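Posted in: Structural Biology > Protein-Ligand Complexes

Title: Requesting predicted complex, iron/sulfur cluster in pocket

I'd be grateful if someone could produce the 3D structure tokens for the following input. Sequence and ligand are given below.
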Amino acid sequence: MVKHYTIPVFIPELACPFQCVFCDQRKISGSLKAPDLDEVHQIIQKHLKTLPEDKAHIEIGFFGGNFTGISEEDQSAYLNVAQHYIDQERVHSIRLSTRPDYISEEVLKLLKAYTVKTIELGAQSLDEGVLIKSGRGHTAQDVIESSKRIIDGGFNLGLQMMLGLPGDTFEKSLETAKQIVQLKPRDVRIYPTLVIQGTELAELYKEGEYEPLSLETAVFWTKEIYRIFQAAKLNIIRVGLHPSEELTDSKSLIAGPYHQSFRELVLTELWKDRFMEKLEFDKNKSLIIYVAPQELNHAIGYSRANLKLLEEKYEAVKIKTDQKLINFSFYADCY
Ligand code: SF4
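-- Reply #1 --
Done. Output follows.
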């Protein structure tokens, strides 16, 4: 099986003319300035040394800002570096993230001239009120039109969504998730909103004008949105932020539902719901539950939470693997 790897190159807030209330891109990416071309080469080469050459699809990802908002000259310079490794057949494709209002036919033409396969948009929300309160500077219609352009242009579409932005509600987030499905992205990311030092959101929080989601609420919202994306067979490539040093040093993160294992918490809850829906509990029975090997840890649960819960409901419980199972499927036998 071919494994996918992405070499991340962060271009922090370079030429981004906006200041979304939640964003201090330099802190989130852990970078203080945009890398020059030599640094991009070094980043790529460092990663390539650690990646397998066989049975691997390797892509270079330009993340962190507004890639198509920088000058054409700078875009081309960065893309040329990435293309160099594609031409050497050491890397297979390029992906990048950008704003929904910075996608035009001209932009796509430039990206098409390189091996850019995937374009990710920071959609964040498709509720106009939430977009305005978050200082995004683009509309939901921008997301819809750009998504269509990207797919029509023959690229893979990625959409990022944020939960718990100013003005957001559970219903609005669910609606955004359903609309995202309609836009037919291949990849999606789900990020709960965090309050980062130096952002406008930090000021709003200190003034009592913004209340972040609790960890429990964020896990619940994310779980329900995960279900929607999963049912639509979207590729959910990220749930929650990377535990970068900048965030875990405790000074940058002021408030919000941050957890180093946020995705595991969400998957634990999804498995808990599966067990609750399907199993008939009986204190006199001992049970073996079989799940897919790659899902064993999530079925057992973060801190073994699901196993502990099941142990209260049966005489004894074991969770084992069966290679034939996939995607949250399981069966159980008594022993
Ligand atoms: S557009 Fe992106 S990089 Fe610019 S401020 Fe907003 S989130 Fe940050």
